[in-house]
Amino acid sequence: FGIPAIDTMLGGGLARDALHEIAATGEAHLPAAAGFALAVAKRVAPSPRLFWVSEDMAFAESGVPHGAGLDAFGLAPEQLVMVSTTHRRDLLWAMEEELRCGATTAVIGEMRANAIDGVAIRRLSLAAAESGTLALLLRTEPPGDASTAATRWVVGAASSIVPDTPRVAAQLVRNRRGPTGTWIL
Fold first, then answer.
1. What is the distance of C-alpha 42 from the center of its chain?
2. Cα–Cα distance between 156 and 104 in angstroms, integer?
3. pTM of the predicted protein model
4. Distance between CA atoms of 128 and 17, rounded to whole angstroms?
5. Mean per-residue pLDDT for 135-150?
6. pLDDT per residue as tens digits for the range 60-81
7. What b-and-e string marks burial along 105-134, b requiring 16 or more CB atoms within 10 Å of the CB?
8. CA triplet 156, 93, 111: central angle to 5 degrees?
């Protein structure tokens, strides 16, 4: 993250060869959680190559990243490949295949609410570890299911102090390396 307090809690920073879950505090906060995911993915490499796969209803309900928004994160639209799937199993399959191919620096999977099969989460964790690729699972609300993810974050929008400067409230609720915490970023 480049923020000593967070990097220390994470044992030196966010593990790049692992699966991390990012959940919005609720549907209305999904843009803040998506922005957090993009910011994390951007930190992986100076010129990242991102793969974003989503359930088709996610794009219909929440929209898609826009060129101007990507530019605000320092990302060019050509650095992002977006895929829409009809079924959750296809989303999880696409994430795993992209993680295993090693062509990208980060894979983001966006899905609606509901539990995920523990075997699928384990497969994503293993694929990320084997390829050294960052995997981010973006969810519309905090899940109650068990996970093998290295971290689980709950993210919502926070009041801005400076106009046109977005802020998020990020809560680390699960950390395989140790402590948890809450920050305004």
1. 11
2. 27
3. 0.93
4. 5
5. 89
6. 777 778 888 888 888 888 999 9
7. bbbbbbbbeeebeeebbebbbebbbebebb
8. 20
